[in-house]
């Protein structure tokens, strides 16, 4: 499938890589189809298939935060038609603010890698951060590994 994007022109994505969010994503309930586009590991883009202007910077939170965890309710596993919790891919949305990269850990995105059914959750636990500074160790050249211009 060819997808028009404002950031990457036209990209070709295999149909089986299209994620289906039956209830949309938070703030974009009418957008239900997305795909992942690689950027700089571990950063990716979650691109809307239906709106070329909508894309989110995302990453696997477990690669960024060793102690990140949250409870997945049984109904979420049923909603995603997930037989094994290991089949779930977890992503969090990242934002750049004042040259720093932050992760919203309270709104993980869960994707059943088997059927590509996805859900954008909101965790009620206020101890989980909505704006957690992403640790970003520099490479040997001194550039950040996340691809932003952060200075940490």
How do the strands and helices of this protein lay out in sequence?
Blueprint: E1 2-5, E2 9-12, E3 19-20, E4 33-38, E5 43-48, E6 55-59, H1 61-64, H2 74-79, E7 88-97, E8 100-103, E9 109-112, E10 118-120, E11 132-133
Antiparallel strand pairs: 1-2, 3-4, 4-5, 5-6, 6-7, 7-8, 7-9, 8-11, 9-10
Structure description:
The chain is mainly β and 152 residues long. It has one domain: BH3618-like (Roll). The chain has two helices and eleven strands; from the N terminus they run ββββββααβββββ. The strands form two sheets. Strands 3, 4, 5, 6, 7, 8, 9, 10 and 11 form a nine-stranded antiparallel β-sheet that branches. It is globular, with a radius of gyration of 16 Å.
């Amino acid at each position: 499938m060819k997808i028009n994007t404002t950031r990457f022109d036209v990209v070709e994505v295999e149909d089986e890589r299209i994620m289906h969010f039956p209830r949309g994503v938070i703030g974009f309930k009418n957008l239900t189809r997305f795909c992942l586009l690689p950027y700089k590991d571990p950063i990716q883009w979650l691109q809307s298939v239906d709106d070329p202007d909508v894309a989110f910077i995302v990453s696997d939170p477990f690669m960024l935060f060793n102690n990140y965890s949250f409870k997945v309710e049984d109904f979420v596993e049923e909603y995603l038609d997930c037989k094994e919790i290991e089949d779930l891919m977890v992503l969090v949305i990242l934002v750049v603010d004042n040259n720093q990269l932050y992760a919203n850990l309270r709104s993980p995105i869960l994707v059943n890698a088997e059927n590509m059914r996805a859900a954008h959750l909101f965790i009620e636990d206020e101890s989980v951060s909505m704006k957690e500074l992403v640790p970003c160790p520099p490479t040997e050249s001194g550039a950040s590994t996340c691809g932003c211009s952060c200075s940490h």
